[in-house]
Design a protein that fits this description.
Distance between the termini: 137 Å
CATH class of one domain: Mainly Beta
CATH topology of one domain: Immunoglobulin-like
Number of helices: 1
Number of strands: 8
Strand content: 35-45%
CATH architecture of one domain: Sandwich
Shape: rod-shaped
CATH superfamily of one domain: Immunoglobulins
Largest sheet: 4 strands, antiparallel
Length: 149
């Protein structure tokens, strides 16, 4: 009787161990997730010296290095003198997009630093682009002589 009981207990132990190993095999945890990730070639641009009245333009290119589509939800400039245009379609993983920034230097002589805020669905959610430069004051136009009649 003791032998039978011991045999049953031993068999139950093996079945329990086999079942536990089988359960371990079925439990798989995936660490990777579906996230977009934006990676800019550069995030700052210095125009150097530009003449007053110039529409200074720069293109910031980026790539989606994640594994889900990247969507730019908003792109806003820090002031009205700077206007951004951007890729509005979702950017597939591995592909690129761009943001073109135009700075209007009309009536704005001197040093400038402007920021463009990029909001997106990727890792981090927000990216900042910066443009800088110096606007050289335009020479005053000579007054034309007034003719009296």
């Amino acid at each position: 009787m003791k032998k039978t009981f011991l045999t049953i207990m031993l068999a139950a132990g093996f079945v329990g161990a086999a079942f536990a190993q089988d359960q371990e095999k079925k439990t798989i945890t995936l660490e990777s997730s579906s996230d977009a990730k934006i990676e800019f070639a550069k995030t700052t641009h210095d125009f150097g010296n530009i003449k007053e009245g110039t529409q200074a333009t720069v293109e910031f290119t980026f790539k989606n290095t994640g594994n889900a589509p990247l969507v730019l939800t908003s792109v806003t400039a820090s002031c009205g003198c700077t206007s951004p245009k951007w890729t509005r379609e979702p950017i597939a993983p591995g592909t690129s997009g761009s943001i073109t920034v135009v700075y209007n230097s009309r009536s704005r002589p001197g040093k400038f630093t402007k920021t463009v805020t990029v909001k997106h669905n990727g890792e981090g959610g927000t990216q900042y682009l910066t443009i800088t430069g110096f606007v050289e004051k335009a020479a005053a136009e000579p007054e034309s002589p007034v003719q009296n009649q």
